[in-house]
Every structure is written in C-alpha cells, then in structure tokens.
Specification:
Beta-clip-like, 3 domains, 3-stranded antiparallel sheet, 11 helices, about 40% helix, binds S-adenosylmethionine, alpha+beta
C-alpha cells in the first residue's frame, strides 16, 4: 500500500451485467472491508480514460412531488434488465426508514448537470446511478477524475496519476479539500462508513495542507499577473513548488488546484529555463498538465491551442524583460 491508500487488490472478478463491448481495463471484485470495488486490470498512466458509461438510471427531482414516489415512478419505467441491475447495487441503508429503492439510490447516485457547465444555473441537476461506476469506492486522495459529459450523457473516469495494474480505483464522494471532520461526518451519514484513508487517520497535518491548497486557489488563478513582469519572484516560485509537493503528498491530483500549479510551473520553467529547483522543466510540466487537462475533458486541439497561447504569452514576457534590461 502506498501513502495514498492506492491498494493492490487480489481476488476474483465479480461478473455483473456490464457492457460486453467495453474494453476491460478494469474489473469489479470484492475489496476488504468495502464490499465490491473496481480495480485496474492494466497499468494506467495519468490522463488515461478508464471507463465511459451511460447511467443505468437518470433521474431529475422536480417540483414538490414526494421524492420516493417520483423515484418509484421513474424506476417503474426502466426495462427489466436495468431494474435487476439497479436492485443488485449496494444499499448503505438496509434497515432504515427508507424503502430499498431510496436506500440504493442514496448510496450510489452522483449529481450531474444537463449542461457541460457545472456552474450553469439554468439547468437543474440530474441524479445518475451507474452499473459499474457506482461500484467505485471513495478515497479522500482519489486516483481518478470523474467527468460528466452532458453532450453524450455519459460519465468518464480517467486516471489522475499512475495506477499500477491490480490497484483499486477510487473517486471522491465528498470534496477532498473540506476539513476531515466535515468529510467524515457526511460520509458516515450518507454512506455509513468511516473513512480509513491516511488523510482521515492523521488529519492534523493533512487538514493544514488541504486548507493551504484551498486558500491558494485565488493566488494561482492568473499566470498573466506575474508574466507581465517576468520572471516570477523567487518567493512565488518557491511557494508554487511547495504547493505541488503538497498536492502530491496529499494525493490531490484530481483537483483543479493541481492543474493551476502545473500551469504556473510550466510557464515559469519556460521563462526561467530549467533548474531553480524545478524537478521537471518545461516539457515535463507540459506533459503533466496535458494529461490533467485531457482527464478533465479537454479535447486534443483545445489543449494545443491553450498551450500555444501560453507560449506566446511567455515569449512576450521574455522579450519585454530583454528590452527592459
Ligand atoms: C457507491 S457504493 C460503492 C460500491 C460498494 N462498495 C459496493 O459493494 O457496491 C458506496 C458504498 O461502498 C462502501 N464504501 C465506499 N467507499 C468506502 C471506503 N473508503 N471505505 C469503506 N467502505 C466504503 C460503503 O459501504 C458505501 O456506502
């Protein structure tokens, strides 16, 4: 087991009614103390697409109708195969006031937007349950990125760091940048488990690191802010390298802060050349950022376009610096 709980899992695959056409880069099997889970069947590199899946059940809570009645009506419209697959999913609330339908739904559902823009306020959220993706267990240091594509109504799961074959795939059910006590309370209330990931077991240092990453979001928003007066100050460079270390130490490559840190370091290494404590250099950071952008749904051409725009901005910064000196 490594520092993020990326566990190597052995054991037999569980046969579910998965899409037979889907390339089997993953398998579903029993995971100690977590029920079933999803495991990488091959070595995966950052940015690799692992699962593309349409929901078994896509549901939109609306109006003042009673949730459970609305859910029952939507469920009744499913074909028998989907009904059966849905009823086989995990239920974290088997002995509560909820009927099984609601219990299974609450255990396995993800909020998704009808529009590709997560902050769009014109589209009310849908809730989606999946045959395979709903088998992915939670980690506060997940090794995958989950992306809903409204244009195709499919959920995409990609690797956000290297995942060796046999490692359990994980996603986050709650924002990993929240304090551990908030994450833990919500995971226990809704999913009925106590998270035993390293960040939850030793929360003091982890909470501090995550708060620092969360607070850096604004400071990292704009590369142009330092590029205008390139090069960046030594303090800003040291701070950005420290943030990268925190992301990697905490296993938060799935988060937006990672993309922002990589973009700054890529641009800094372009302006300053290699060295200065930067482990990767321009090509290295460019490769890492590219993988992160692809995993977050960017198309190849779009990635090339934004890379080119950054190079042009950096060239202008260098030529300004040369003119000024
Ligand atoms: C969406 S389901 C995940 C798949 C589930 N393990 C199964 O057997 O189908 C959510 C449930 O999985 C279990 N689970 C998920 N992540 C876990 C974790 N990190 N530790 C322990 N149990 C976990 C909990 O029982 C939770 O209610």
């Amino acid at each position: 087991m490594d520092k993020h709980n990326d566990e190597e899992i052995r054991g037999d695959t569980v046969e579910l009614d998965s899409d037979p056409q889907a390339p089997k880069v993953y398998r579903i099997q029993a995971i100690p103390s977590k029920g079933l889970g999803v495991v990488a069947a091959i070595d995966l590199a950052p940015g690799d697409l692992i699962i593309v899946e349409s929901p078994l059940f896509l549901f939109r809570p609306e109006g003042a109708m009673i949730y459970k009645d609305l859910l029952q009506r939507a469920f009744d419209k499913l074909d028998d195969g989907k009904k059966e697959a849905f009823m086989k999913l995990d239920n974290a609330h088997p002995e509560t006031e909820y009927p099984p339908l609601v219990g299974i739904f609450n255990t396995n559902a993800y909020d998704v937007q009808k529009s590709d823009h997560a902050d769009s306020d014109v589209d009310s959220p849908y809730i989606a349950v999946f045959n395979d993706i709903s088998r992915i267990n939670h980690s506060c240091s997940p090794n995958t990125i989950r992306l809903w594509r409204a244009s195709s109504s499919t959920m995409h799961i990609s690797a956000c760091r290297a995942i060796p074959a046999g490692t359990e795939l994980t996603t986050h059910y709650r924002d990993p940048l929240l304090p551990s006590s908030d994450r833990g309370a919500s995971l226990l209330a809704i999913y009925k488990f106590v998270c035993a990931c390293p960040a939850c077991l030793n929360p003091t240092a982890s909470d501090k690191a995550r708060l620092r990453l969360q607070q850096s979001r604004g400071r990292l928003a704009d590369v142009a802010a330092w590029a205008r007066a390139a090069p960046p100050s030594p303090e800003f460079l040291a701070d950005t390298l420290e943030l990268l270390g925190l992301v990697q130490e905490e296993g938060l490559e799935s988060q937006h802060v990672y993309g922002r840190v990589l973009r700054h370091l890529m641009c800094m290494s372009y302006v300053m050349g290699e060295g200065d404590g930067m482990a990767e250099g321009y090509e290295g950071y460019r490769r890492m950022l590219r993988a992160w952008r692809l995993a977050n749904g960017a198309e190849e051409e779009e990635v090339e376009r934004v890379e080119q725009a950054d190079v042009e901005m950096m060239r202008a910064a260098i030529s300004r610096r040369n003119t000024d000196s």
